[in-house]
């Protein structure tokens, strides 16, 4: 436990502590009070991780955008193959409607071919 006195911060008891401290867990990080430098290796490491995570997130977001664009384009092409009977009142079909109607249409075409 730290005690604030007129002097620099001191421990109020000389016995060793029973719990781990940041110094124990991160020996590369030296923490000192008044007149001593603080090693910023951990802070810099955390910042670079943060930046790396941001870059990774941006790349992942871009990949997801491209995936969604590709999916939208594929669904648009699929809608073009469906007969106009499947679209209702000129409204665009939803993704699920497009997939369901495509399956239905393929089954109808298969039935026609099987009967011939």
TrEMBL record:
GO BP terms, alphabetized? cell differentiation; mesoderm formation
Keyword terms of this UniProt record:
Developmental protein, Differentiation, DNA-binding, Nucleus, Transcription, Transcription regulation
Q: Does the keyword Transcription regulation apply?
A: yes
Annotated spans, Disordered? 1-25, 43-64
Record keyword Chaperone present = no
Against SUPFAM superfamilies, the record matches this protein to:
HLH, helix-loop-helix DNA-binding domain
Q: Which Pfam families match?
A: HLH
Q: Which PROSITE patterns match?
A: BHLH
User: SMART domains in the record, alphabetically?
Assistant: HLH
Q: Name one GO cellular component term.
A: nucleus
Q: Where is the composition biased (Basic residues)?
A: 48-58
Lineage: superkingdom: Eukaryota
**What are the residue boundaries of the BHLH domain, all occurrences included?**
55-109
Q: What is this protein called?
A: Mesogenin-1
Q: Which organism is it from?
A: Nothobranchius kadleci (African annual killifish)
């Amino acid at each position: 436990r730290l005690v604030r006195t007129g002097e620099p911060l001191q421990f109020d008891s000389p016995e060793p502590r029973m719990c781990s401290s940041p110094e124990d867990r991160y020996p590369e990080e030296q923490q000192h009070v008044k007149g001593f430098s603080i090693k910023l290796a951990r802070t810099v490491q955390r910042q670079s991780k943060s930046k790396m995570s941001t870059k990774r997130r941006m790349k992942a977001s871009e990949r997801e955008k491209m995936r969604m664009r590709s999916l939208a384009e594929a669904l648009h092409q699929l809608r073009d193959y469906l007969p106009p009977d499947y679209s209702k009142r000129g409204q665009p079909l939803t993704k699920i409607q497009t997939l369901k109607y495509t399956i239905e249409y393929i089954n109808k075409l298969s039935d026609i071919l099987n009967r011939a």
